[in-house]
Amino acid sequence: xxxxxxxxxxxKLVRSFEExxxxxxxxxxxxxxxxxGKWRNTTFKQRADLxxxxxxxxxxxxxxxxxxxxxxxxxxISQAGGG
Length: 83
Description:
Layout: E1 3-6, E2 13-17, H1 22-40, H2 44-60, H3 62-73, H4 77-80
């Protein structure tokens, strides 16, 4: 049975996701462990630079991200950062 994201305001389907198999979960955990190993070996400055880049990308995509939050969580667009 697929996992569904429902808009709490309209009860309409936003998106369906297939259930993950044990193998997919195992692969995701393995990738997370590998990534953490790399992250752990970065300097504070490297981490800060990366987080600034992520924040910049999120600001550039502010409107679509706010709409997604509104659809998935039922939050007002102004509260989600889009208005």
